[in-house]
Design brief:
This protein has about 375 residues and is of the alpha+beta class. It folds into 3 domains: about 10-120, Acyl-CoA dehydrogenase/oxidase, N-terminal domain (Butyryl-Coa Dehydrogenase, subunit A, domain 1), CATH 1.10.540.10; about 125-225, Butyryl-CoA Dehydrogenase, subunit A, domain 2 (Beta Barrel); about 235-380, Up-down Bundle (Butyryl-CoA Dehydrogenase, subunit A, domain 3). It contains 10 helices and 11 strands. Strands 4-5-9-8 form a 4-stranded antiparallel sheet, with helices on one face. Strands 3-6-7 form a 3-stranded mixed sheet, covered by helices on one side. Strands 1-2 form a two-stranded antiparallel ribbon. A hairpin with a 2-residue loop joins β4 (about 145-150) and β5. The two termini are about 40 Å apart. The protein binds 3-thiaglutaryl-CoA and flavin-adenine dinucleotide (FAD). The site of 3-thiaglutaryl-CoA has 28 residues, from α4, α6 and α10.
Length: about 375
């Protein structure tokens, strides 16, 4: 098994350890036994939604409104453990918590919070976050979807691409251009003119719902607009929350791969000795442990900064870039050391590897995060 070489676990409070152990047990008992089949059948395990809600994992950082009010380290640990099962399950929780509940809590009216947060926490409503459009997700400022005021209503037209939970959502947070700038709208997916089509030919995140959304003269009342934010900083602030969780989640995916590989190399005998007796294999295992340890310490420090209210988007970019790159490299390397078996569904690395191809692209591609760090170093935007 991979080891906690720097005893990161002892940095956790008793409460954080309980959260981690509870989610870990949930993943071992409920996610791992079914997830490969879900991946193969390209279906999201909807049966996990209710138990996830009952564990308090939806909007876990929010105080009040039926939410658990846990700290940021706990949210990170939730993401890490869920992604040890599958990135798709962590994605579901990231979107509901960081991309739907967080903006309602932070930018919503009291009426919007009271109406939606308790339902979203209990999974009585599922949310999705519509920012990306087909002309280029990296540059959301080039948004074509627009909302026009008509009396007491807004009329929204446009489309969104690659939207997690899109076809299972009851509520879509749609970011649209208005005369005043980009604004967020709470759109019930049953509203006339709203269509969600699932993208069903993915090689990655197959156990997650990803959809294209179309909004054709969708009419929502003014009270559905998030009143407390205008401009791109609205959606970008939500991304900062989700990217923080992803930096932890990626560590879980890497752990799942390395744990399985270590067991495999003990029993695989080649040239009259177990694979793990070879220097070249041990060096590769050690290198994975080095990178995972660095990633764990980085996320833990980021969590401390977040809980102290000192986390900034550049730190989050560096952590998301570093940790997802680490996990993707670890998953690929594990797949290689499994030889031909590494392409079989019997082992987890190829599934994690394929999932991580999405994780390195969504929530800001690797290049976007490198350029964000470059901008902080030079003061010059090279996007
Ligand atoms: P820029 O001029 O830099 O900023 C515009 C305004 O936003 C503020 N800001 C941020 N605020 C909070 N958090 C951040 N990370 C922020 N970054 C910028 C900034 O201060 C400014 O505010 P103000 O008041 O001055 O107006 O914007 P830009 O157009 O130059 O773009 C910067 C760039 C490229 C970094 C940004 O566009 C970007 O991050 N692009 C990538 C887009 C992205 O990540 N999309 C993700 C879509 S959602 C998703 O993938 C969900 S997957 C979920 C799952 O399944 O888990
Ligand atoms: P593009 O922006 O077209 O990028 C193409 C390539 O160009 C990339 O390699 C990129 O790094 C590079 N590039 C871009 N700009 C520059 C530059 N200035 N210099 C150098 N290189 C550059 N979005 C949502 O809004 N909500 C969701 O729930 C959501 N879920 C998703 C789920 C999945 C499975 C996937 C795959 C995506 C999801 N997305 C979601 C969209 C995701 O955020 C975008 O795919 C991502 O931001 C990249 O946008 P794009 O796909 O249009 O690629």
């Amino acid at each position: 098994m991979s080891i906690d070489l720097f005893d990161i676990n002892s940095l956790l409070s008793e409460e954080e350890q309980i959260v981690r152990n509870n989610v870990s047990r949930f993943v071992d008992e409920n996610v791992k036994p079914i997830i490969q089949e879900c991946f193969e059948s390209h279906s999201f395990p909807k049966q996990l939604i209710q138990p996830i809600a009952e564990l308090g994992l939806l909007g876990s950082s929010i105080e009040g409104y039926g939410c658990a009010g846990m700290n940021s380290i706990s949210y990170g640990l939730i993401c890490q453990e869920l992604e040890r099962g599958d990135s798709g399950v962590r994605s579901f929780v990231s979107v509901q918590s960081s991309l739907v509940m967080y903006p309602i809590f932070t930018f919503g009216s009291e009426e919007q919070k009271e109406e939606w947060l308790p339902k979203l926490a209990k999974a009585e409503a599922i949310g999705c976050f519509g920012l990306t459009e087909s002309q280029g997700g990296s540059d959301p400022a080039n948004m074509k979807t627009h909302a026009k005021k008509d009396g007491d209503d807004w009329v929204i037209n446009g489309s969104k691409m690659w939207i997690t939970n899109g076809s299972i959502a009851d509520l879509a947070l749609i970011w649209a251009n208005t005369e005043d700038g980009i604004r967020g709208f709470l759109v019930e997916t049953s509203t006339s003119g709203f269509i969600a089509n699932e993208i069903d030919n993915k090689f990655s995140l197959r156990a997650s719902v990803t959809s294209e959304l179309f909004l054709d003269n969708v009419r929502v009342p003014n009270k559905n607009m998030l009143p407390e934010v205008i401009g791109l900083k609205g959606p970008l602030s939500c991304l900062t929350q989700a990217r923080y969780g992803i930096s932890w989640g990626a560590i879980g995916a890497a752990e799942a791969c390395l744990d399985e590989l270590i067991e495999y190399t003990k029993t695989r005998v080649l040239f009259d000795r177990a694979l793990d007796e070879n220097q070249a294999i041990q060096i590769r295992l050690a290198d994975m442990q080095r990178r995972m340890t660095n990633a764990g310490l980085l996320s833990h420090r980021l969590g401390q900064l977040k809980d102290e209210g000192k986390m900034n988007p550049t730190q989050v970019s560096l952590a998301k870039w570093n940790n997802v790159r680490m996990a993707l490299d670890v998953a690929r390397d594990c797949r290689d050391m499994l030889g031909g078996s590494g392409i079989s569904a019997e082992y987890v690395p190829i599934r994690h590897m394929l999932n991580l191809e999405s994780v390195i692209t969504y929530e800001g591609t690797e290049t976007i995060h490198q350029l964000a760090v470059g901008r902080a170093l030079t003061g010059k935007s090279a996007f």
